[in-house]
Amino acid sequence: MAATGETMTSADYIGHHLHNLQMGSGFWQLNVDSLFWSVALGVLFLWIFHRFASKTTVGVPGKFQCFLEIIVEFVDGSVKDIFHGRNKLIAPLSLTIFVWVFLMNLMDLIPIDFIPYIAEHWLGFKFMRVVPSADVNIDMSMSLAVFVLVIIYSLKVKGVGGFIKELTMQPFNHWVFIPINFILEMVSLLSKPLSLGLRLFGNMYAGELIFILIAALLPFWAQWILSVPWAIFHILIITLQAFIFMVLTIVYLSQACEDH
């Protein structure tokens, strides 16, 4: 991959593919490639569904319209099964999360050297990672956004007093146990964004790493023997991880909107 023509060891190859295209330094360092691909895939999602919505027909739908309608109905059914209340945000948010995370995960199925080669030799970028969900910064940003919504709806539905009471009077409903209740509830509350983001990151990082190891350690003819079966199995993983992220988001928001 090196533009200088130097021979890369397996360790160099793996490290190269796990390094982001970065800008800035320290706390303000940005992973430009992760930001670019996540935004680009978000725009692609909006464009596809806007065209779908604008060209929806009441007659016999086309194959693509049927496919998108299946996705919408699937997400809508999941929301109705989990979220027992009325909220205009939950269903669109769940659809956005499911499709956006799925598209980001889907980038893992692109041949590992294809886009990085174009970025290095045609665009002059030494590094280029194309799986945004394999970047912990992207995953934790999405989970923190969900966490903010959880706090907002908890305060909106329960009120400040009700939210504080929920943190201090559960599970033991006695003032003596307020410190213990608060510690237990805060651990439970703070674990939500951590589990949401790190679960997605761990699965997608592991999947990306396996593709890199296959490409780095095996000869070209053997790569296809292992890459194709893993890619077929990985389709299930990327779909399942998008579904889990969506379901946990619905569950957390449903709990926030419950008024005890």
Automatic annotation (TrEMBL):
Q: How does it sit in the membrane?
A: Multi-pass membrane protein
Cell compartment(s), UniProt: Cell membrane; Membrane
Q: Which Pfam families match?
A: ATP-synt_A
Checking InterPro entries in the record gives: ATP_syn_F0_a_bact/chloroplast, ATP_synth_F0_asu, ATP_synth_F0_asu_AS, F0_ATP_A_sf
Keyword NAD assigned = no
Q: Does the keyword Transport apply?
A: yes
What keywords is this UniProt entry annotated with? ATP synthesis, Cell membrane, CF(0), Hydrogen ion transport, Ion transport, Membrane, Transmembrane, Transmembrane helix, Transport
Residues annotated as transmembrane? 30-49, 89-115, 136-155, 175-194, 206-226, 232-253
- PANTHER family, per the entry: ATP SYNTHASE SUBUNIT A, CHLOROPLASTIC
Q: What does this protein do?
A: Key component of the proton channel; it plays a direct role in the translocation of protons across the membrane.
Would you identify the family this protein belongs to, as annotated? Answer: Belongs to the ATPase A chain family.
What is the protein's name according to its record?
A: ATP synthase subunit a
Q: Which organism is it from?
A: Celerinatantimonas yamalensis
